[in-house]
Amino acid sequence: MKITLTDLEKDLTTNGITENFQQAGNSYAFLRMRPIVKFYNPLNKNYQTTIKQLNDMLPKNIDLETYSELEQRFTYEDMQLPLWAY
Q1: What is the spatial distance between Cα 46 and Cα 41, in angstroms, rounded to a whole number?
Q2: Strands 18-21 vs 30-33: parallel, antiparallel or unpaired
Q3: Domain spans of the chain?
Q4: Amino acid 49: pLDDT
Q5: Cα atoms in the 13 Å half-sphere on the side-chain side of 86
Q6: Which parts of 1-86 fold into alpha helices (H)?
Q7: What backbone torsions phi and psi does residue 61 show, to the nearest 5 degrees?
Q8: If you ran DSSP here, which 8-state letter would residue 69 be given?
């Protein structure tokens, strides 16, 4: 989920959240929200909820050294999934 969100964020940063859209060849173009935004928003909300639930399950008295070890063990590159997994 995080990888997909990161990819979507890159796309939104590069291409923006709006686009010019034209129904037919002879009609006027108008500005609309890109469809990717409708996909990103609920996915981001679900991700935030999931992370909060996982965070709430962690022990409250974990020391910073243990946390740093765990954080260093899992990086974005380690979580790369094949395309079919998305």
Answers
A1: 9
A2: antiparallel
A3: 2-76
A4: 92
A5: 13
A6: 2-15, 35-57, 64-73
A7: -110, 35
A8: H
On average, the pLDDT of the chain sits at 80
List beta partners, residue 19: 32
30 Cβ neighbours under 8 A, 6+ residues apart: 20, 21, 22
Highest mean pLDDT among 4-13, 24-33, 53-62: 4-13
Verdict on whether the full-model pTM lies above 0.70: no
Instruction: Say which amino acid occupies 8.
Output: L
**pLDDT at residue 86 in the model:** 44
The first and second tokens of residue 33, run together, are 């929200």
Residue type, 72: Q
Q: Give residue 45's pLDDT band: very low, low, confident or very high (50, 70, 90).
A: very high
The alpha carbon dihedral of 68, 83, 15, 37 has a sign of negative
